Automatic annotation (TrEMBL):
This is Lytic murein transglycosylase. Keywords: Signal. The lineage of its organism: Bacteria, Pseudomonadati, Pseudomonadota, Alphaproteobacteria, Rhodobacterales. Residues 347-401 form the Peptidoglycan binding-like domain. NCBIfam families: MltB_2. Residues 36-326 form the Transglycosylase SLT domain.
């Protein structure tokens, strides 16, 4: 596979040939749907309005093809229906732990520079590097222009993907995005899987060769990932998560990953929450309790840096697993699984979401996935019904509703 070499941010801004700006994100440029050929022509015309010359727009848009397998992949994300224990055990295989520790040692100089210059710990970067591409072993086999154009044509989320097409066009205009660039089904490329606009505005030349090559340069990939996390609000040299032990009773309605649940760690300690091993990693910080499977399952204190991870990926279970894996790579023990109530089946979860929506809660799409909106609604209804409000949906709650 061949991937793009991306120029540094300073050079990229100087070499811009079009009018795409950093703030031009999350908008729909042209009408989605209809004939794919007509859609391609609309996108090409829009690019020419933005001052891209025909010698750039003609080959770029002429190369675009509709990819049905991109749509199939977009519709088939069933892995996120797993609960935390199932998902984490599936992703955190022994070989990934071993490989992560090997890569940490092999690239110690790179990680040390990142930790010193950007304040992002190696555990976090190793975790995302592992989950995104198995440490660069497989970075995707979807033609990136095809997949971005296909998702831009599809009317589910054109505001997310149409700007990325123009990001790719800008990079192509600079000679840094070959037409045969390949990556993931959603348009990300390279070892840490970055979208074109992220490459434009957050790419980092880690090896000092004047380019940001996310495919072949480990230094560029890791520095770019760290730089992206910093742009998401990562606070240098602060913790993100540690496992805790809970008392038998807590004000469970105060738990949860939403920012308004954060309070001084000293207050949680006063309620009887203690670290499972060692001392508090952020004794002077605010934190909150993340109970991915309710009060009877694994329990973690999370700190403000945890919120930055949701900008990388907005799946609750993915972020929880990546953050936990990072702690393992930094020496934490295997979590205590506890004895959580069984998760609802996909069908039961959809029924629960329908009931919650009927009660006026915004749970988003009725998809059977326990996301942030569903968790908040569950917690609210548990509190209303006098149940422990730990945001974990149980059959008792479903029956009560």
């Amino acid at each position: 596979m061949r991937f793009a070499k991306i120029v540094s941010i300073a050079a990229a801004l100087a070499l811009s040939t079009g009018t795409l700006k950093a703030e031009e994100t999350r908008q729909i440029y042209v009408e989605c749907g209809g004939s794919f050929g007509d859609f391609v022509n609309r996108m090409k015309a829009k690019a020419e309005e933005m001052s891209y010359p025909p010698e750039v727009t003609e080959p770029f848009f002429r190369s675009a093809n509709y990819l049905q397998r991109t749509i199939n992949a977009d519709r088939a994300q069933g892995i996120f229906n797993s609960d935390f224990i199932e998902f984490s055990r599936r992703l955190i295989a022994q070989y990934r732990l071993d490989k992560g520790r090997q890569e940490s040692q092999k690239n110690d100089a790179i990680f040390s520079r990142i930790e010193s210059e950007l304040g992002v710990p190696r555990g976090i970067l190793l975790s995302f590097w592992a989950f995104e591409t198995d440490f660069g072993a497989f970075t995707g086999d979807f033609n990136t222009i095809d997949t971005l154009m296909t998702l831009s044509h599809d009317c589910r989320r054109p505001e997310l993907f149409q700007p990325q097409v123009f990001g790719a066009l800008e990079l192509y205009a600079r000679g840094d995005f070959p037409l045969d660039t390949q990556g993931a089904w959603a348009g990300e490329v390279g070892q840490v899987q970055m979208l074109p606009l992220d490459i434009m505005h957050r790419g980092f030349d880690g090896d000092g060769d004047g380019h940001v090559d996310l495919d072949h340069s480990v230094a560029d990939a890791l520095f770019s990932g760290a730089n992206m996390l910093r742009s998401f609000g990562w606070r240098p040299n602060e913790p993100w998560m540690q496992e805790v032990v809970l008392p038998a009773d807590l004000p469970w309605e105060e738990t949860g990953v939403q920012p308004h649940h954060y309070r001084p760690v000293s207050e949680w300690e006063a309620w009887g929450v203690t670290p499972r091993s060692g001392a508090w990693e952020g004794p002077s910080l605010d934190g909150t309790l993340m109970l991915p499977m309710g009060r009877k399952g694994p329990a973690f204190m999370i700190y403000p840096n945890y919120q930055a991870l949701f900008e990388w990926n907005q799946s609750y279970v993915y972020v929880a697993t990546a953050a936990y894996f990072a702690t393992r790579l930094m020496g934490a023990p295997v979590y205590d699984p506890g004895n959580a109530d069984p998760r609802l089946s996909d069908g039961e979860m959809r029924v629960l979401q329908q009931k919650l929506a009927a009660l006026g809660h915004d749970v988003g799409k009725i998809d059977g996935i326990l996301g942030a909106g569903t968790r908040a609604a569950v917690q609210a209804e548990q509190q209303r019904l006098g149940l422990p409000a730990d945001a974990w949906p149980t059959r008792e709650l479903l029956n009560r509703l």
